């Protein structure tokens, strides 16, 4: 039988847990939306509106250097408008999902050694 538990790299910022209004990354609690790229955790300064600021708010991740950007929009599956999705995908491949799925997928991608970034809205 194959063990499905990913072997997470010790030198990368991994998401330990998440809950209503919070995330734990490498044992540190964050009580706000976060951006994480494996090396750093940032407060995500997105205003909740799908405008030009949406893409700019993720620039701390160095989007052009990512293999994959995952965006977790909390409890409800949400997709940015088509023009925002097209603009993001011109910079790097992007997937939108609920926060739980984005956090898990981020950890699996890190375990594979991929250059992945995640933007996460906390659960409500």
Low-confidence spans: none
Share of helical residues: 10-25%
Globally, the shape reads globular
Could you say how many structural domains there are in total? 1
In terms of DSSP E residues, the strand content is 25-35%
Q: Give the CATH H-level superfamily.
A: MTH938-like
What is the N-to-C order of secondary-structure elements (H for helix, E for strand)?
EEEEEHEHEHE
* End-to-end gap: 37 Å
Radius of gyration: 14 Å
How confident is the prediction overall: mean pLDDT?
Answer: 94
User: Total strand count, please?
Assistant: 8
Q: Which CATH first-tier class would you pick?
A: Alpha Beta
* CATH topology-level name: Hypothetical Protein Mth938, Chain: A
The name of the CATH architecture is 3-Layer(aba) Sandwich
Briefly characterize the structure.
With 124 residues, the protein is α/β, with parallel strands linked by helices. Helices cover 23% and strands 27% of the residues.
Itemize the secondary structure elements and their pairings.
Layout: E1 15-19, E2 22-25, E3 28-30, E4 34-36, E5 41-43, H1 52-56, E6 68-73, H2 82-91, E7 94-97, H3 99-111, E8 116-121
Parallel strand pairs: 6-7, 6-8
Antiparallel strand pairs: 1-2, 2-3, 4-5, 4-8
Characterise the protein shown here.
Strand 6 (68-73), helix 2 and strand 7 (94-97) form a beta-alpha-beta unit. It contains three helices and eight strands, in the order E-E-E-E-E-H-E-H-E-H-E. It is α/β, with parallel strands linked by helices and 124 residues long. The longest helix has 13 residues, at 99-111. Helices cover 23% and strands 27% of the residues. The protein has helices at residues 52-56, 82-91, 99-111; strands at 15-19, 22-25, 28-30, 34-36, 41-43, 68-73, 94-97, 116-121. It has a five-stranded mixed beta sheet with strand order 5-4-8-6-7, sandwiched between helices. Strands 1-2-3 form a three-stranded antiparallel beta sheet, covered by helices on one side.
């Amino acid at each position: 039988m194959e063990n499905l538990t990913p072997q997470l790299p010790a030198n990368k910022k991994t998401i330990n847990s998440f809950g209503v209004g919070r995330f734990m990354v490498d044992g540190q609690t964050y009580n706000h939306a976060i951006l994480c790229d494996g090396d750093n955790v940032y407060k995500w300064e997105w205003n909740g509106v799908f405008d030009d600021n949406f893409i700019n708010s993720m620039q701390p991740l160095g989007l052009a250097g990512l293999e994959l950007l995952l965006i977790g929009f909390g409890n409800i599956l949400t997709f940015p408008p088509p023009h925002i999705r097209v603009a993001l995908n011109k910079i790097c491949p992007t997937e939108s999902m609920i926060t739980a799925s984005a956090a898990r997928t981020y950890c699996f991608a890190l375990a594979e050694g991929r250059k992945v970034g995640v933007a996460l809205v906390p659960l409500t």
